[in-house]
From TrEMBL:
TM regions (residue ranges): 21-40, 60-78, 85-104, 110-130, 142-164, 176-196, 216-232, 238-256, 268-289, 301-322, 334-352, 358-377
Name this polypeptide is given: Uncharacterized protein involved in response to NO
Source organism, top-level taxon: Bacteria
Database matches in Pfam families: NnrS
């Protein structure tokens, strides 16, 4: 169990990374989607830096997604390494940098200021995590730092697109970030989903990892991110169906190996498995789009963002927040409906626009707000309170 030195304790919110960053990620999920729905309706009277479309494209991966990643890794890496967790004023300063950056973009601050703030966060996060992993000589976790640095490069590409008025660079950076988030989901999901499933169902035998499967599946997502950064997924290309389809099949095999029919009794398990299923569907959907079998690549990307990435973020935040606040691994009343709402949001965003173009977007957005709003209603107070078991963290 991770212990934090007494002088670093202070206000509970600053004791461990999951507390401020999970709270910030969930709150921003509501703010960002709520404002995006208003922007689509023409209601807002101000413009964020770069305009509403550029803001939405950038802030979902680099604002909402990055906060969740930071919260998880700042909590998990100290447990893996036994090192002192980032806490107290340093943690508060890192979170404040993330928050000020979000406010700068949203408030229409000068682009140069937004760029300076934006491009500082990920390198600082990678340094904090990389230092702990280096000192512990945990080479198997070095790829996490590598993905964060690639993520910083994708962010740089997106910001450069705004600075130089290159909309294509903005899209390339954002799309690369989405597949890098998928790569992180693959790395982390491959560790926690089979482990949580085994522990949650009381199984004695773990699912063994297969090197021939794990390494190509994870490397494949990184390759897709590089291809996206190069702009090769902006238009349909028949040959691109091969990497997307192959990586999708590999991750489908991974998911099938973790499956246990008992998981449907446990919301904290089926929410994780469904999120990973959306990731597989997104990969296969992108392959179908490149082959011309479906007309809209946006549907496949939103299967990734809403069902896969947001689904995994919500499920992981719900479980990690329970375990690290000293509570039993049983979601609070009604939380299962938050998981249902988010999966319904993905369904509405991916499958309904063909028949209800505007109505589907509004329905998907409202279901998203319901899902993350329920998380905030149930967990926000816990994230700001000491552990119930009296331990530090």
């Amino acid at each position: 169990m991770l212990q934090i030195s007494r002088p670093a304790l202070g206000f509970p919110l600053w004791r461990l990374g999951f507390r401020p960053f999970f709270l910030g990620s969930a709150a921003y999920a509501c703010v960002a989607l709520g404002l995006w729905l208003l922007a689509l309706s023409g209601a807002p009277v101000w413009q964020p830096t770069g305009g509403w479309l550029a803001w939405h494209l950038h802030e979902m991966p680099f604002g909402f997604g990055v906060a969740a990643v930071a919260g998880f890794l700042l909590t998990a890496v100290p447990n893996w390494t036994g090192a002192q967790a980032l806490s107290g004023p340093p943690l508060a300063a890192l979170f404040l940098l993330w928050l000020l950056t979000r406010l700068a973009w949203l408030g229409g601050a000068p682009l140069a200021l937004c760029a300076v703030l934006e491009l500082a966060f990920l390198p600082l996060l990678a340094f904090a995590l990389g230092r702990s992993l280096w000192r512990a000589r945990q080479r198997n976790n070095y790829p996490l730092v590598g993905v964060l640095l690639l993520f910083a490069l994708a962010d740089g590409l997106a910001v450069a697109g705004q600075l130089l008025d290159r909309a294509d660079w903005q899209r390339q950076g954002a799309h690369a970030a989405l597949w890098l988030l998928a790569a992180l989901s693959g790395i982390i999901g491959g560790r926690v989903i089979p482990f949580f499933t085994q522990r949650g169902l009381g199984r004695t035998q773990a699912v063994p990892a297969l090197k021939w499967l794990e390494r190509p599946a994870l490397a494949g997502l990184a390759v897709l991110a590089i291809l996206a950064a190069a702009g090769l997924d902006l238009q349909p290309r028949a040959w691109m169906a091969l990497p997307f389809g192959l990586v999708g099949v590999l991750h489908g095999i991974r998911l099938s190996r973790w499956y246990d029919k008992g998981l449907w009794r446990v919301p904290l398990l089926w929410s994780l498995h469904l999120a990973y299923a959306w990731l597989v569907l997104a990969l296969l959907g992108m392959a179908a789009w490149h082959l011309g079998l479906i007309d809209n690549g946006s549907a496949a990307l939103h299967a990734l963002t809403v069902g896969g990435l947001a689904g995994l973020i919500l499920a992981m935040m719900a479980r990690v927040s329970l375990g690290h606040s000293g509570r039993p691994l049983l979601p609070p009343a009604g939380m299962r409906w938050a998981f249902v709402a988010l999966n319904a949001s993905a369904f509405a965003r991916v499958l309904l626009p063909t028949w209800l173009p505007q109505g589907a977007l509004v329905l998907a957005g409202l279901l998203w707000l319901l899902a993350f709003g329920m998380f905030l209603a149930r967990y926000a107070g816990w994230l700001c309170q000491p552990r119930v078991d009296g331990l530090s963290g």
